[in-house]
Design goal:
The chain is built from ten helices and eleven strands. α5 (140-161) packs across α6 (176-185) and α7 (199-211) packs across α8. The protein is α/β, with parallel strands linked by helices. The relative contact order is 0.17. β1 (2-7), α1 (15-28) and β2 (33-37) form a beta-alpha-beta unit.
Amino acid sequence: MRVGVLTGGGDCPGLNAVLRAIARKGERVFGDELVGFVDAWDGVMERRTTPLTIETMRGSLPRGGTVLGTRRGSPFDHPDGVDRVKTAMAELGLEALIVIGGNGSLSVACKLYNEHGIPVVGVPKTIDNDIEGTDVTFGFNTAVQIATDAIDRLHTTAESHDRVMVVEVMGRHSGWIATTAGIAGGATAVLIPEHPFDIDEVCERIIRRHNRGRFASIIVVAEGATPKEGTFDVGEREIDRFGHVRLGGIGNLLASEIGLRTGFETRPVLLGHVQRGGTPTAYDRVLSTRFGVAAIDAVHRGAFGTMVALHGAEIGETPLVDVIGRTRPVDPALYTDVAEIFFA
C-alpha cells in the first residue's frame, strides 16, 4: 500500500518515534511505501512530501519535535481545501492517511472520514493528556518529568531566600501536567482549569506555612487556570487567529497578587515551550513506538475512522466520533483524594 502520514498541531516529544515505528513495520512487514506530508494539512493540500523510510528515520528515536514539521490549520479553513486533499491523495496514489495530532487534527480527520469518505487512522498526540478515548497520550510523561525537574530545582532556591515560587505549566483545558508534576514535586498548591481557584485561600495556605516556619512555597498553576468569579481580575485575554484564547501569563499575574496580599517575596517561573522540546522519556518512546505499530496495523485491517489508544496495558482503538469535541479532565480522585492531601 501507499500510505500518507502527517503530524499536526503543536509539536510533542515522541512524534519521531511514532513515524519511525510506522516506517519500520510498514516497510519491513507489509512492504508499504510511506509518504510523509511536510507541515501538516498544508503539505497535503500543496502536495509537499518527503519519503518516510527506515533509512530516513534512522537515529530519530530520541529526537524531539517532528522531522515532518507541523503547524495548525485545517483544509476546512479553505473553500477548496477538501477537494485539494482528495486530489492530492488520488494523484499520489494513497490508499490511506495516518493523522498524528491532538483534538484539532483528529476532529479534521473524523470529518474527512465521516463526511467525505477519506480513509484515515488517528494517533493521539498531546502533552496535555486531554484526549478522550485513551488512558495516556505520548508526550505527557516527558512534559511532567520536565516540570517536576524544574520544581525540584526551585525548591532549593526558594528555601534559600524564603521565597514563594509560582510555576506556570501548560494545560489549556485540563490540569494533568500541573496536578501530576505538583504531586511529584511536592507543591504547596496546584491550580487547574477544572477547579477555579480562590486567591484568598491560596494566600491563606502560604501564610499558614510561613507561620509554621515553612517559608518557601511552590505554587503550580496550569496556563488555563482561572479564579473564582469575583475573587481576582485577570483582565481580558486575546483571541488568536484560530479562535483560541491566547493563554500564558497567569503565573505572572498570580505571583504579583500573592506578593501584594502576603508581603512575601514571590517570583513567577513560566516553563512554556521547554515542556514540548527535547528528547522524550523512555516511557514516551515506548508508547509512541507501540502507537506507530498499531496505526499501520489498523490501516491494513481497514479500521478507518478510528484512533489507536492505550486501554489499561493494551493498545486498542477508539472510534474518532467518540473522541472529537470532548476534553478529558483530570481524574477527580487524583486531584481531590490524592493531590489536595499534600497541599497545606
